[in-house]
Amino acid sequence: MVITLSTSGENESFVRDLHACGGRFIVVGGLAIQHYCPDREANDLDLLLEPLPSTAAAAHAALARAGETPHFEPEELTRPGKQVCAKHLLDVDLLTPHEGENFGAYWSRSVAACLGGVTVRVASRDDLVRMKRNALEARPDEKDRRDIVALEACAAKPALAVDERRE
User: Fold this and answer.
1) Which residues pair with 115 in a beta bridge?
2) Residues 6+ away with beta carbon under 8 Å from 28
3) Starting from the edge strand earliest in sequence, which strands make up the sheet with 111-115, in order?
4) Is residue 98 a contact partner of residue 11, using CB atoms and an 8 Å limit?
Protein backbone atom coordinates (compact mmCIF):
# COMPACT_ATOMS: atom_id res chain seq x y z
CA MET A 1 0.00 0.00 0.00
CA VAL A 2 1.52 3.34 -1.09
CA ILE A 3 0.45 6.43 0.85
CA THR A 4 -0.04 9.72 -0.98
CA LEU A 5 1.73 12.75 0.47
CA SER A 6 0.52 16.26 -0.14
CA THR A 7 2.32 19.58 -0.26
CA SER A 8 1.82 22.78 -2.25
CA GLY A 9 1.34 22.48 -6.00
CA GLU A 10 4.59 24.34 -6.69
CA ASN A 11 6.52 21.95 -4.45
CA GLU A 12 4.88 18.98 -6.18
CA SER A 13 5.86 20.36 -9.59
CA PHE A 14 9.44 20.73 -8.34
CA VAL A 15 9.43 17.10 -7.13
CA ARG A 16 8.12 15.89 -10.49
CA ASP A 17 10.82 17.86 -12.28
CA LEU A 18 13.60 16.64 -9.98
CA HIS A 19 12.33 13.07 -10.33
CA ALA A 20 12.21 13.37 -14.14
CA CYS A 21 15.84 14.55 -14.14
CA GLY A 22 16.85 11.36 -12.35
CA GLY A 23 17.86 12.98 -9.08
CA ARG A 24 17.66 10.58 -6.11
CA PHE A 25 16.22 12.10 -2.96
CA ILE A 26 14.41 11.07 0.21
CA VAL A 27 11.57 12.99 1.83
CA VAL A 28 12.57 13.89 5.40
CA GLY A 29 11.33 16.45 7.94
CA GLY A 30 7.71 17.30 8.66
CA LEU A 31 6.16 15.70 5.58
CA ALA A 32 8.01 12.44 6.29
CA ILE A 33 6.84 12.54 9.90
CA GLN A 34 3.29 13.15 8.66
CA HIS A 35 3.65 9.96 6.61
CA TYR A 36 3.86 8.02 9.90
CA CYS A 37 1.88 10.40 12.14
CA PRO A 38 -1.02 11.81 10.09
CA ASP A 39 -1.84 14.47 12.70
CA ARG A 40 1.55 16.15 12.18
CA GLU A 41 1.29 19.22 9.96
CA ALA A 42 4.14 19.88 7.57
CA ASN A 43 5.23 23.47 6.97
CA ASP A 44 7.54 22.84 4.04
CA LEU A 45 9.18 20.11 2.00
CA ASP A 46 12.56 18.79 3.15
CA LEU A 47 14.50 16.59 0.74
CA LEU A 48 17.69 14.70 1.51
CA LEU A 49 19.63 14.59 -1.75
CA GLU A 50 22.05 11.93 -2.86
CA PRO A 51 25.33 13.88 -2.81
CA LEU A 52 26.33 13.17 -6.41
CA PRO A 53 27.12 15.72 -9.16
CA SER A 54 24.21 14.43 -11.29
CA THR A 55 21.68 14.92 -8.47
CA ALA A 56 23.16 18.31 -7.58
CA ALA A 57 22.89 19.46 -11.21
CA ALA A 58 19.31 18.14 -11.44
CA ALA A 59 18.31 19.99 -8.26
CA HIS A 60 19.97 23.21 -9.42
CA ALA A 61 18.20 23.01 -12.80
CA ALA A 62 14.83 22.09 -11.26
CA LEU A 63 15.03 25.09 -8.92
CA ALA A 64 15.77 27.40 -11.84
CA ARG A 65 12.86 25.95 -13.86
CA ALA A 66 10.57 26.50 -10.85
CA GLY A 67 11.47 30.19 -10.87
CA GLU A 68 13.83 30.05 -7.89
CA THR A 69 17.20 31.72 -8.34
CA PRO A 70 19.76 29.21 -7.09
CA HIS A 71 22.30 31.21 -5.06
CA PHE A 72 24.80 28.37 -4.99
CA GLU A 73 26.88 26.30 -7.34
CA PRO A 74 25.61 22.75 -8.01
CA GLU A 75 28.75 21.13 -6.59
CA GLU A 76 27.86 22.55 -3.15
CA LEU A 77 25.11 19.90 -2.98
CA THR A 78 27.74 17.17 -3.12
CA ARG A 79 29.29 18.30 0.21
CA PRO A 80 28.33 16.82 3.60
CA GLY A 81 25.83 18.68 5.77
CA LYS A 82 24.77 21.22 3.17
CA GLN A 83 21.37 22.92 3.40
CA VAL A 84 19.86 25.08 0.67
CA CYS A 85 16.54 26.85 1.24
CA ALA A 86 14.27 27.68 -1.70
CA LYS A 87 11.60 29.92 -0.21
CA HIS A 88 10.79 32.49 -2.91
CA LEU A 89 8.21 30.57 -4.96
CA LEU A 90 8.73 27.14 -3.41
CA ASP A 91 8.84 26.07 0.21
CA VAL A 92 11.66 23.55 -0.08
CA ASP A 93 14.82 22.77 1.88
CA LEU A 94 17.45 20.68 0.12
CA LEU A 95 19.83 18.83 2.41
CA THR A 96 22.80 16.52 2.02
CA PRO A 97 23.77 13.82 4.53
CA HIS A 98 26.10 14.92 7.30
CA GLU A 99 29.66 13.64 7.57
CA GLY A 100 29.55 9.94 8.43
CA GLU A 101 25.96 9.46 7.22
CA ASN A 102 25.32 7.14 4.30
CA PHE A 103 22.66 8.12 1.75
CA GLY A 104 22.58 4.56 0.39
CA ALA A 105 21.77 3.17 3.84
CA TYR A 106 18.97 5.72 4.27
CA TRP A 107 17.68 4.83 0.80
CA SER A 108 17.65 1.09 1.53
CA ARG A 109 15.56 1.64 4.68
CA SER A 110 13.20 4.21 3.14
CA VAL A 111 9.63 3.44 2.09
CA ALA A 112 7.67 4.31 -1.04
CA ALA A 113 5.02 7.01 -1.17
CA CYS A 114 3.38 9.08 -3.88
CA LEU A 115 4.01 12.82 -4.14
CA GLY A 116 2.95 14.96 -7.05
CA GLY A 117 1.99 11.88 -9.03
CA VAL A 118 5.41 10.24 -8.80
CA THR A 119 6.77 7.56 -6.52
CA VAL A 120 9.20 9.00 -3.98
CA ARG A 121 11.09 7.58 -1.02
CA VAL A 122 10.33 8.60 2.57
CA ALA A 123 12.90 8.16 5.33
CA SER A 124 12.20 5.26 7.67
CA ARG A 125 10.65 6.03 11.04
CA ASP A 126 13.85 4.94 12.82
CA ASP A 127 16.01 7.14 10.60
CA LEU A 128 13.73 10.12 11.24
CA VAL A 129 14.07 9.59 14.99
CA ARG A 130 17.87 9.41 14.61
CA MET A 131 17.90 12.57 12.48
CA LYS A 132 15.76 14.41 15.04
CA ARG A 133 17.99 13.25 17.92
CA ASN A 134 21.06 14.48 16.01
CA ALA A 135 19.34 17.81 15.38
CA LEU A 136 18.61 18.11 19.11
CA GLU A 137 22.29 17.60 19.90
CA ALA A 138 23.20 20.39 17.48
CA ARG A 139 20.51 22.81 18.66
CA PRO A 140 17.78 22.16 21.23
CA ASP A 141 14.37 22.66 19.63
CA GLU A 142 11.01 21.82 21.17
CA LYS A 143 9.57 20.90 17.76
CA ASP A 144 12.23 18.20 17.33
CA ARG A 145 11.40 16.81 20.80
CA ARG A 146 7.69 16.71 19.93
CA ASP A 147 8.46 14.97 16.64
CA ILE A 148 10.46 12.25 18.42
CA VAL A 149 7.64 11.68 20.91
CA ALA A 150 5.08 11.56 18.08
CA LEU A 151 7.14 9.13 15.98
CA GLU A 152 7.66 6.82 18.94
CA ALA A 153 3.95 7.00 19.86
CA CYS A 154 2.86 6.34 16.27
CA ALA A 155 5.16 3.33 16.14
CA ALA A 156 3.07 1.75 18.89
CA LYS A 157 -0.21 2.23 16.99
CA PRO A 158 -1.41 0.09 14.09
CA ALA A 159 -1.06 1.82 10.71
CA LEU A 160 -4.19 3.36 9.22
CA ALA A 161 -5.45 2.20 5.88
CA VAL A 162 -5.07 4.71 3.07
CA ASP A 163 -8.81 5.32 2.91
CA GLU A 164 -8.98 6.08 6.64
CA ARG A 165 -6.19 8.67 6.33
CA ARG A 166 -7.92 10.65 3.60
CA GLU A 167 -11.13 11.28 5.51
Assistant:
1) 5, 118
2) 46, 47, 48, 95, 123, 128, 131
3) 3-5, 111-115, 118-122, 25-28, 45-49, 92-95, 83-86
4) no
Q: What is the CATH number of domain 3-160?
A: 3.30.460.40
Contact call for residues 66 and 89 (beta carbons, < 8 A): yes
Is 116:12 a contact under the CB 8 Å cutoff?
yes
Question: Which residue type does 64 have?
Answer: A
> pTM here?
0.89
Percent helix, strand, coil in the chain (nearest 5)?
45, 20, 35
Amino acid residing at 68: E
DSSP E strands, 3-123: 3-5, 25-28, 45-49, 83-86, 92-95, 111-115, 118-122
Per-residue pLDDT of the chain (167 residues; tens, 9 = 90+): 678 888 878 899 999 999 998 889 999 999 999 999 988 888 889 999 999 999 999 999 999 999 998 889 999 999 999 999 998 889 999 999 999 999 999 999 999 999 989 999 999 999 999 999 988 888 888 889 999 999 999 876 655 444 444 33
